[in-house]
Amino acid sequence: MVSATLRALPDKLEMASDLKPFLWLRAEPERLAYVRWIAILAGILFCGVLHAALPLTLGHWHNILQHLYYLPIVFAGMYFGWRGGLFAGLLAGISSLPYSLHLLSVIRSYGGDQLLDILAFCAAGVFTGMLAQREREHRLAMEQTTLRLTEVYRELQDSFEQVKRAERLSAVGQLSAGLAHEIRNPLASLAGAAGLLQRAQTSDQRRDECVEIILRECERLNRLLSQFLDFARPRTPQYQVIDIRSVLEAVVDLAAHAIGRRAVRIRLELPDQIPNVECDPEQIKQAVLNLTLNAIHASPESGEVVVAVYQDDDRICVEVRDEGPGVEPEAMNRIFDPFFTTKEDGTGLGLSVVHQIVDQHGGSIAAKPAAPKGARFQMLLPRRQGAAR
What pTM did the predictor assign? Predict the structure, then answer.
């Protein structure tokens, strides 16, 4: 669409250039053009009649009248182009000609100068008309350019909307494909366990293992669907002004139960003073808990997970660090995509939900390498939601 419009622009420009010589004929509406020509002729006639009526002894007034001719001439050039200015200049010269000839017979040298004024009248009309016509053509070209740009902008907007719709359809397709892929594996395990249970010679131990597989995979499917619903239908945040430290303390308490028998340590770094934050405490707790659980799973035995908070100008930064293998550079730009995961039993929706919660709060989240090893997730939140919006 845009290329077709751009190809049509030279033809439109050529058509506009063909009409330029006739702009002075249609520069104004017909009725207004008549009124202006009547005013021009009246002004020239007025100067000519006074020239003829006044005696030559009033040379001062004759000189003023000679200069007053320029007013209708300039007026004609402005509104009717150089042709109109030339025509008005010739009329002014003809109107002043009787006075100039009479003066020539009395004062030959001065009368010759008066005759040269006829050429000055024509030159003034032509010059004014050319300037006015150039300005008029420039204005017309600007209007045409504005119309073309408006048309191109409208078509670009339509194209942009089509691209956005295509992106949304692509995102829906990717989500559907990812969800189908994640559901297929548990279903295969469930189908295999059910097949074993159907066999009459299955031992009790084997039967118990199949039941455990079914329960585990059902729990996995339930967790997957819960995370998918959290991602697909995010809850509107219920903003409150809270002390972020209480939320982080609750997260550490919950995450401590997920450690189990592992020797991973969780350390909470809280400053003595931190400004309150306007946020949804439950959603922020869910986001930080997801980051902390990921850090625990990535940490080696006897590793340490650090949950810290500090002020960054008018924002609050919540940081989760671990001592695991870190994030591969090629995966750094995809870790927040839905269903992208590097864990065998991961759903790939945890970080997507975190990103969505942070985005709803007007903040940002980024993953960076930690020193000397591991990964570091920084979640920046505005202190006030009015400032974020």
Answer: 0.47
